[in-house]
Amino acid sequence: MKIGILGAGRVGGTLANALAAKGHDITVGHRDPQAARAKWQGAAVRHASLVDAAASTNLVINALPGDTALVSVTALAASLAGKTLLDVSNATTRLPNGLPGGLLYPGDSVAERLQAALSETRVVKALNTMIFSVMVAPRSVATPPQAFLSGNDEAAKAQVQALLLDLDWSAEWIIDLGGIETARATEALILMVPHLIKAKGFKPFALTAAY
Questions:
Q1: Cα-flanking dihedrals φ and ψ of residue 4, to 5°?
Q2: Which segment of 4-18, 159-173, 196-210 scores lowest on mean pLDDT?
Q3: Distance, CA of 85 to CA of 51 (rounded, Å)
Q4: Which of 24, 54, 71, 136 is the most buried (most CB within 10 A)?
């Protein structure tokens, strides 16, 4: 699959390396592709502008910071038309230590706002309830994690589910919550992270439901 990844921080870089290792054709979108290419030490991927990464691929992953994603991604509307956008971000305010301190869109979510702004794009929310390493290595945590899907388009959610299966997620660990409005619930879970780190220390985690 030709996949565009918007952003090359810890989340975007981790996803790019893992998906490239699975044989996908990866284009990583940057604000400054030339500088990013010079610093890149990961898998063999193509480096391009954000616009080009969105325009030249079939599925696009938003791995930009949640507090700036709405402006950055909606500016790519023409390039994203007719495509699936997997949004893994959480829009939060930040504590002095960089951890999430509050929701930037209380009573709403960045995924819903992206879908409202990108009417010709199929937005799917997933992978936003875990640390980036677990996104691509779900079996690295002791308790089976869960990936929650939110989105209005069933075909787009099926496309994202297939991608997760390729990343070694088990089908029973993937839960379809329903429409894009359910993303506000999973985005709110991120507020638990500072308290979990204080209680248990910093280690790989996935916020999950037990049955």
A1: -105, 135
A2: 196-210
A3: 14
A4: 54
In a domain, 108, yes or no: yes
189, 205, 203: which is closest to 138 by C-alpha? 205
Domain count, the chain: 1
Find out whether 191 and 128 touch, Cβ atoms under 8 Å. Answer: no
The CATH number linked to 112 is 3.40.50.720
pLDDT digits (tens, 9 = 90+) for 115-159: 999 999 999 999 999 999 999 999 999 999 999 999 999 999 999
| Residue 207 within a domain | no
Report DSSP letters for 65-100, one per residue.
-HHHHHHHHHTTHHHHTTSEEEE----EEE-TTSSE
